[in-house]
Give the backbone structure.
Amino acid sequence: MGSSTASTASDRPSEGSESGIDTHSNPVDSKKVESILEACRWRDIGQLRALAESPGGLLSDNLREQAWPVLLGLSPERFEKDQDSSVDWKDLPRHRDEDQVQLDVDRAFVYYPQHLTEADLEKQKEELSSLIIEVLRRYPFLCYFQGYHDICQVFLLILPGPLRVPAVARLSALRIRDFMLPSLAPAVAQLRLIPDILRAADPDLWRHLSDTEPFFALSGTLTMYAHDITTLGEIARLFDVLLAREPVFGVYVFARIVMNRRAELFDTPRDEPEMLHSILSKLPQPLDLDRLVADAAALFDAHPPESLRAWRTISRASVLKTARSADTCALQSVEDGRIFFERQVRELRWLERRDELLNYLWRHRRHMRLLALAMFFGIAAVWIRRTPGLLSYTSLRASLWWTR
């Protein structure tokens, strides 16, 4: 298939590792394991969502190997439809962003996995580079962004080799497509939802942060929190629910993180937005993920995205609207993602041209006013010449008014 080579057993965390869990000593966990396996067997995304949101998420890497592809809509039939495996990716044209990929891969695997030899670390980096570049070469419309390697690193460590490329490709085209466009504008549009959520859920906190732009959430939302969470167990558990829920759920997670820091934020004056930004741009440690997921789900239910004013500014081709549920996303193909991608690109280009025109008119507004005035008098002169009776009537009325 030309996809990245599978890691050996020694390269990947075992069931008892930081991202695994011993499910044999706890009958409750054993029952949950059976429920997860049953949901995977029947490809029941609704049930997997409930299990992913429940304490502990999907429990272990072995279970995630089966559940994540289901959540992403990956099946043998879908694999064949999404990817032309007859062509070796190394024979495909070089992607324009490959130099940046290598720079980021060189900085990967800082926190996990631990206790790797230098040789094993280099092997992991080679596999990560191959995974990213294969996805980009097979789907060259996608644009790489810094932090994408953090997401791919998690998939590399959780999924077996043959599943990595198709899973990451579907994630890229159907769930994080807004971040892989040639502009950051759609990503910024997502951030604008956070103040609206705060205004609806906690007006006092919203007012306190009203002078602070929501760019503090860019790193977290852009990388599905993989850049900021430093243990594989925690990020894998959070990925469980981010893959099981609609893409907009990640925004609610950050809004809930902000709300959970309410007391800390009120200790910093409102007129110090730089300090507030600094606080909010770093996730609190440790994160109580089970509580965070439950609170974010409750926040979503209380204030769904359609109730937010900024939702109207989100493109209809955005993943937030084209993948309004994990079930919808699972039924789409990577080709569907490409079509939505091209629609968003056309929208972005139109908006750029509109903004350029408005900026030009603003810069030359004095000349524009003079031009408009000259055009007005020119049109009036032509009109008067064509209707001389109107000029006589107007002159008479003016004379009568003047002599009163």
